[in-house]
């Protein structure tokens, strides 16, 4: 994003937070979006998190082959990596692809088919009506999905580690319960909140200002996913630097 | 009544509107006509606030629109109905939900009252019983009629129509034109239609404003348009073979 785009993005956000015309209508839209962002992504996040946890445990076990290192470390490393980095970031990047492209194409199609103009003419604040429910769904449901991903990633690690014999159930459970710092959960949730904001607003911006036809909507969708992923990684670094 | 004064609009170095003025009266079907690229849709968008002109004024019954902020414009926009070129119906909503949408947003009526209004509007455009269809299930002419039904749902004082006949067969075009004319007279709306369709011009043009290369070249009624000696207007009006042949009878 260059500075012009960033400026327009901020102006769009300002418009998003204007007072809604009717809370009841917005509330209904928020619940629909929460269902789409949260419930609609549960399956995908479950599969990805479980496998990532399992693979991570196997790789840690493979790299920590030493008599001087207790095997409980495998559980500890899996737990901290899952909570602090993999669950928030991988979940966010997957959602940027799934949710981000959907948001961008939905709003982009509405733009090129004059549906956004129709909203404006009716006197409706189109950024608020179209983006605010998605934004609220993003910042509430992404943290929920991240917690879900953390649990499944650690569970996947348990399954992968014990089924392969890399670690015993007792060692793994001792590992994930030893020296647990709850602050890591706070850091992960802050990341999830920020990522939820990015996943919904960046694609919405790309879709809202699209010009042209089907090709431009598709290009905006691709750009939305790319910019969202880069923004997620940049914010991941910034939040980690600030909070740890 | 809508009065525009000296409207100028540019896109980069390209000046699209060069000082357009005109008065569009209530109860009349006012047409803005001109060839492709003449600036008629840009003028319409300046009038409804989708574009901001660099110069000039747009007054809705004496209320200056261009200087208004977003909140102030809402009050005027509640009085505006618009039919877009592509109908601009909300794809994910049924016909009923599309027409009910502005009522949901801006009124506190009960569902029953809103449904009655929806059914009245649908009846008015001869689409009774089509409530549960989605836009994808409608023909081009039906979409336009649903667009008109949505536009009149809030009893607008001002009705804007952008290229109502684009993509429609001549018979359906006449139906849409007559519907616009009837609604204008019935509700005494200030109706502004952007078109380059000569059937519309001759059929419903109570007041016509002709644009050419971003300038106002002529204004008058459909009774006068065929009898001018303005070359640019005659080139436009009598461009088709049919109109050339018909000219002999004027």
Automatic annotation (TrEMBL), chain A:
The chain crosses the membrane at residues 36-62, 135-159, 180-200. The keyword Transmembrane applies. PANTHER family: ABC TRANSPORTER PERMEASE PROTEIN-RELATED, PROTEIN TRIGALACTOSYLDIACYLGLYCEROL 1, CHLOROPLASTIC. Keywords: Membrane, Transmembrane, Transmembrane helix. The lineage of its organism: Bacteria, Pseudomonadati, Bacteroidota, Sphingobacteriia, Sphingobacteriales. GO terms for cellular component: ATP-binding cassette (ABC) transporter complex. GO terms for molecular function: phospholipid transporter activity. It comes from Pedobacter cryoconitis. This is Phospholipid/cholesterol/gamma-HCH transport system permease protein.
UniProtKB/TrEMBL annotation, chain B:
It holds the Pfam family ABC_tran. Coiled coil: none annotated. Residues 2-238 form the ABC transporter domain. It comes from the Bacteria. Keywords: ATP-binding, Nucleotide-binding, Transport. GO terms for molecular function: ATP binding; ATP hydrolysis activity. InterPro entries: AAA+_ATPase, ABC_transporter-like_ATP-bd, ABC_transporter-like_CS, P-loop_NTPase. This is Phospholipid/cholesterol/gamma-HCH transport system ATP-binding protein.
């Amino acid at each position: 994003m260059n500075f012009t785009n960033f400026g327009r993005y901020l102006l769009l956000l300002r418009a998003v937070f204007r007072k809604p015309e009717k809370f009841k209508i917005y509330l209904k839209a928020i619940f629909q979006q929460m269902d789409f962002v949260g419930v609609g992504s549960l399956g995908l996040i479950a599969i990805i998190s479980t496998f990532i946890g399992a693979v991570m445990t196997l790789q840690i076990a493979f790299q920590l082959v030493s008599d001087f290192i207790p095997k409980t470390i495998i559980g500890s490393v899996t737990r901290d990596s899952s909570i602090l980095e993999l669950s928030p970031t991988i979940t966010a990047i997957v959602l940027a692809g799934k949710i981000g492209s959907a948001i961008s194409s939905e709003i982009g199609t509405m733009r090129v088919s004059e549906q956004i103009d129709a909203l404006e003419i009716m006197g409706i604040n189109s950024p608020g009506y179209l983006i605010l429910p998605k934004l609220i769904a993003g910042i509430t449901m992404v943290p929920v999905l991240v917690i879900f991903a953390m649990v499944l990633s650690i569970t996947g690690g348990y399954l992968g580690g014990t089924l392969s014999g890399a670690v015993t159930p007792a060692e793994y459970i001792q590992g994930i319960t030893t020296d647990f710092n709850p602050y890591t959960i706070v850091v992960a949730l802050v990341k999830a909140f920020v990522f939820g904001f990015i996943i919904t607003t960046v694609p919405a911006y790309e879709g809202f200002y699209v010009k042209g036809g089907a090709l431009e909507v598709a290009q905006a969708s691709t750009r939305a996913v790319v910019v969202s992923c880069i923004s997620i990684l940049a914010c991941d670094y910034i939040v980690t630097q600030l909070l740890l | 009544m809508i009065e525009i004064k000296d409207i100028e609009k540019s896109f980069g170095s390209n000046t699209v509107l060069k000082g357009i003025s005109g008065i569009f009266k209530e109860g009349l079907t006012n047409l803005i006509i001109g060839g492709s690229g003449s600036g008629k849709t840009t003028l319409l968008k300046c009038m409804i606030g989708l574009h901001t002109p660099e110069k000039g004024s747009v007054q809705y019954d004496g209320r200056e629109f261009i200087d208004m902020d977003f909140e102030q414009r809402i009050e005027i926009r509640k009085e505006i109905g618009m039919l877009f070129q592509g109908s601009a119906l909300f794809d994910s909503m049924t016909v009923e939900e599309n027409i009910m949408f502005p009522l949901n947003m801006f009124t506190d009526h009960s569902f029953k009252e809103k449904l009655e209004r929806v059914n009245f509007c649908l009846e008015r455009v001869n689409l009774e019983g089509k409530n549960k269809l989605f836009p994808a299930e409608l023909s081009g002419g039906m979409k336009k009629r649903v667009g008109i039904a949505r536009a009149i749902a809030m009893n607008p004082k001002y009705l804007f129509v952008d290229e109502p006949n684009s993509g429609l067969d001549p018979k359906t075009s006449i139906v849409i034109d007559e519907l616009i004319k009837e609604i204008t007279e019935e509700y005494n709306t200030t109706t502004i239609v952007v078109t380059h369709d000569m059937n519309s011009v001759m059929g419903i043009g109570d007041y016509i404003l002709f644009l050419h290369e971003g300038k106002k070249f002529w204004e008058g009624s459909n009774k006068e348009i065929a009898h001018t000696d303005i070359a640019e207007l005659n080139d436009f009006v009598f461009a088709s073979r049919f109109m050339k042949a018909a000219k002999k009878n004027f």
